[in-house]
Amino acid sequence: MAAGGGIGAAQILGWIVTGAAFGGNLLWNWLNRRHTNRVAETIRLEQYAKEVWERHRIRIESRLEEFVSCVQELPGQMLTYPGFAERAASMDIWGYNLTLLHDSLARALAQADHSAYCEGSSWQAAAAGRDHGTEHSWDLAMTAFEQAREAVDEESQLTLIKSLAPYALEIELLIHHKIQEADYRYQP
Amino acid sequence: MTLAIDLEVLTQGRVHNLSGHERGLAAREHFRLDELDKAGEAVEIRVPEHIYGVSPSFIQGLLSESVQSLGSTREAFFSHYHLIASDLVRRQFDRGLSAILTDRNFAIN
Prior knowledge:
The complex is a heterodimer of chains A (about 190) and B (about 110). By secondary structure, chain A is mainly alpha-helical. Chain A has one domain: Four Helix Bundle (Hemerythrin (Met), subunit A) (Up-down Bundle), CATH 1.20.120. Chain A has five helices and two strands, in the order H-H-E-E-H-H-H. Chain A has helices spanning about 10-80, 85-115, 135-150, 155-160, 165-185, and strands at about 130, 135. Chain A has a two-stranded antiparallel ribbon with strand order 1-2. In chain A, helix 1 packs antiparallel against helix 2 (about 85-115) and helix 3 runs antiparallel to helix 4 (about 155-160). Chain A is rod-shaped and about 120 Å long. Chain B has one domain. Chain B has helices at about 10, 20-30, 35, 55-70, 75-80, 85-100, 105; strands at about 5, 15-20, 45, 55, 80-85. The longest helix of chain B is centred in the C-terminal third of the chain and has 16 residues, at about 85-100. The interface of A and B includes residues 95, 122, 127, 134 and 135 of A.
């Protein structure tokens, strides 16, 4: 220390060291805070993306289940009708309901196409099902249903209605596969 | 007089679903869509209320070549062809057009 109460070099050095430590501490805290904010933002975005995807997935799975159940229940519903004429009249209603359920499924899938948080593409196209050349599963299901409507005897009508189920399962498998692929994106 | 095609001609009030690529192609020929694609005025496509289902493959057979000859855009197609149909059928036509616009194989069939 300098004699006579003056400021010595050691004191100045002490201030510099203290100042540098303080500045370093401030810088470290600022960098740390910035990094933490970025990580928190990434986690929030990931969480939000996952929640949005799960909402889409629930909607799609719900519509898909309604559609597939409707197809699978058709033969049983047919058998509960007493006569061919009564059944034929109900076929129009079942056909309309089936088309509505498929439309509802296609719309839920279209929403996934428009979302930034649903991995993959061509969600809506999956509603058509598997490719069978120039036709897809849904085309063949519609054709079979129309043939069943026009069938002149009970046995062939029932056979045609039963033939819809494999096409509905093709649509279900294709959509489940797409859902699984999108799920991988959010697996930890 | 407005140019129009009426799908009632195909169904005679009995059929409620139009499906099948081949049937779409046959309908295209029946309605002479190759000529209507080049018409100088808009053409109406009328779908009667009793038709509730139109499959993508039928739409592809019916309209693929029209979409292609009109510039392969949804806007160009709908500015030439005006669809008169229920909302349910309109959405099915829309999906059929999406399939045409994304699947080039159908566009050349």
